[in-house]
């Protein structure tokens, strides 16, 4: 039986050294699931609300835990997540916190899988989910909100699209990351790492493009399969509402110039992926760019859609972007994340499952990406909280094939 008998909540450390919410869900027949909430730095304006962890835990203990214990079945994810929504009573989880909600939601899924004796990806995706595995997008140079005094563009992402296996792809991204370090060294550019483990050198975007392009071609020649790259521009962080311009360190661009700049980058570097190239409120500009380059690259909405079906539906109506980033903590539950993926799929949009800049060793997103058969997962290239997911992907592929 998957009847929930206990939900335990505590604060644990995340990769930035901040506290975050961890949940344990226990069931009648001895099932156990544990999960922890991640946390963003370049958060979208329309994300579900992350509360201060001790407040989120206190509110969840008061409102959600009594409605789950002895009442809900961990194997029935929609029921669990529906209870979390009802217990919260707001649109954006501002009562119990999206951090408590997502930790409980993911822990319940793991407890449900545990009772079945099935791996989480199979519990979530079913036996007939297919044999595909996502290509990991590896953050190799980054700045923006994830590192001070580095690139304006938040993430330069290695994309080993031709890798014959998940493991080959994971190691290729690590090799691109290492090669970037060597190239920086050759140029006498010192670099620490940003929040996601990407190199965070004090260089401009143009130099980062040169270095990433060279690193990708070097590793491509070594491994013998195709490696491309992509970006998370995180443009909402650069956008100035008053002047209606995108503020770069060395220049500013109005919306038309930003669209032209991104379209040129897609062309010049044959980018396979461009996330948040425009402001999170500008569906129209997203639609214009998608019209221009949507047949060559994935134009992905992260802050634009925030894993929210209403915002995604709005984008679909307008032709804004052609893919959505899926971050369960942006919306609060696994059910909501699944619904967003489903809506995307029905409308020809791709989904990319993603980590947050603040992470833990939790591996739920690796299982979510496999369960939902998405083409890409964005979960860094190196660093313990990133390799936790990457190594789990390798294990899943190893067990499943
Ligand atoms: C992972 C990202 O960063 P954060 O978690 O800081 O929003 C992102 O913007 O895609
Ligand atoms: Mg993003």
UniProtKB/TrEMBL annotation:
One of its GO terms (biological process) is glycolytic process. CDD domains: enolase (cd03313). The active site is at residues 196, 327. One of its GO terms (cellular component) is cell surface. Mg(2+) binds at residues 232, 275, 302. (2R)-2-phosphoglycerate binds at residues 154, 327, 356-357, 378. Residues 4-124 form the Enolase N-terminal domain. Substrate binds at residues 146, 155, 275, 302, 354-357, 378. Its cofactor is Mg(2+). Pathway: Carbohydrate degradation; glycolysis; pyruvate from D-glyceraldehyde 3-phosphate: step 4/5. This is Enolase. It comes from Natronosalvus hydrolyticus.
